[in-house]
Amino acid sequence: MLETQLREKYTWTAYYSDNTTLEQYGKNKTSNYPDIDRTKLAAFGILKNNELIYRVFLEPNQTLIYRRRPSGNFQTGELTGEVIMVGTKEKVKGVDVQNIAYIDVTNGLIQTAGKWVGGTPNLRSEENG
């Protein structure tokens, strides 16, 4: 139930260099993600309740990173939210460089990540130092 609510609230739009767009869901309500034309992808936006809240622009040498990951207590299996990871990846002097933002869909907080090494980031509150 929570997963369905989150997916309805947050969607994406692919923006192309020819000024066309591709929305996340087609008429049959399945994801259009496999249909993204990465050869002309210029930007990728995250929408909350159909309003753009975050957009990443891609240079010709960059590829899109987009993942949705559950958050919660993985020991008990309780799902409390979801994190959207969105950004770019490119090769710089033979090394993969990734720029990723994390969008916490439970509270709308958007954060830019440091070096990504896999998994969900270990977040600290400012109160805990």
Q: TL;DR of this structure?
A:
This protein has 129 residues and is mainly beta. It has one helix at residues 2-9, and strands at 10-16, 21-23, 41-48, 51-57, 63-73, 78-92, 95-104, 110-112.
Protein topology:
Blueprint: H1 2-9, E1 10-16, E2 21-23, E3 41-48, E4 51-57, E5 63-73, E6 78-92, E7 95-104, E8 110-112
Describe the structure.
With 129 residues, the chain is mainly β. The protein has one domain (2-115). Helix content is 6%, strand content 50%. The protein has 1 helix and 8 strands. It has one helix at 2-9, and strands spanning 10-16, 21-23, 41-48, 51-57, 63-73, 78-92, 95-104, 110-112. A 4-stranded antiparallel β-sheet has the order 2-1-3-4. The chain has a 4-stranded antiparallel β-sheet with strand order 5-6-7-8. A hairpin with a 5-residue loop joins strand 7 (95-104) and strand 8. The radius of gyration is 16 Å and the shape is globular. The N and C termini lie far apart (34 Å). The model is unreliable at 124-129 (pLDDT under 50).
Strand content: over 45%
Q: What proportion of the residues is helical, as a percent range?
A: under 10%
What is the mean predicted local confidence, pLDDT? 82
In total, how many beta strands?
8
Low-pLDDT runs of 5+ residues are: 124-129
What strand line-up does the widest sheet have?
A: 2-1-3-4
Number of helices: 1
Question: N-to-C SSE series?
Answer: HEEEEEEEE
Structural class: mainly beta
| Main sheet attributes: strand count, strand direction, barrel closure | 4 strands, antiparallel
Question: If you compute it from the alpha carbons, what radius of gyration comes out, rounded to the nearest whole angstrom?
Answer: 16 Å
What would the principal axes of the Cα set say about the shape? globular
The number of domains: 1
How far from one another are the termini? 34 Å
